[in-house]
Amino acid sequence: MRQDAEATGRAGRWKTIPGDAHRPLLRRSNLDEIPNLINVFFGQMSLVGPRPEQPYYVQRFREYIPRYMERHREKAGMTGWAQVNGMRGDTSILERTKYDLWYVENWSLWLDIKIVLRTIFQMVFGRNKNAY
Predict the structure, then answer these.
(1) Quick check: 3 and 11 in contact, CB under 8 A?
(2) pTM of the predicted model over 0.85
(3) CA–CA distance from 24 to each of 28, 31, 116, 128 (Å)?
(4) Is 130 left (phi over 0), alpha (psi -120 to 50) or beta?
(5) Contact 48, 112 (CB under 8 A)
(6) CB 16 within 8 A of CB 90
(7) Residue 31, exposed/middle/buried by CB under 10 A (0-12, 13-18, 19+)?
(8) What 3 state SS string does the chain have?
């Protein structure tokens, strides 16, 4: 997030803005994931798990999405079951939460390997714009 996000109105916004010049390049190249990769190396995040949300959104979503906070039983990850199934970016938080809860309830090492492989496949072939 930009340092002046609060002043410019960028913070607290759920959807991206059409024509926002910095988002498409960062999103397409996945350069926006570098800080998350650093957090994985420091142990603050996992490679696979539910994607983290800004605290502002966590407070809002926990009020109206049943079981939303259960997705926090697992450490936040760079990629997850929701992302490899097309729930990345401007997609339904309700649907994304369903995928995250399924992941938390069905976690296995094999599932994590499958998610990593699907993430790599999506990054290389890019068939779904809302998936890795």
Answers:
(1) no
(2) no
(3) 6, 11, 23, 15
(4) alpha
(5) yes
(6) yes
(7) exposed
(8) CCCCHHHHCCCCCCCCCCCCCHHHHHHHHCHHHHHHHHHHHCCCCEEECCCCCCHHHHHHHHHHCCCHHHHHHCCCEEECHHHHCCCCCCCCHHHHHHHHHHHHHCCCHHHHHHHHHHHHHHHHHCCCCCCC
Q: Average pLDDT across each block of 10 residues of the chain; the chain has 132 residues. List them in order.
A: 54 55 63 88 95 92 94 94 89 93 97 95 76 59
CA atoms within 13 A on the CB side of 7: 3
Neighbours of 110 (CB within 10 A): 8
Give dist(CA 39, CA 42) in Å, integer.
Answer: 5
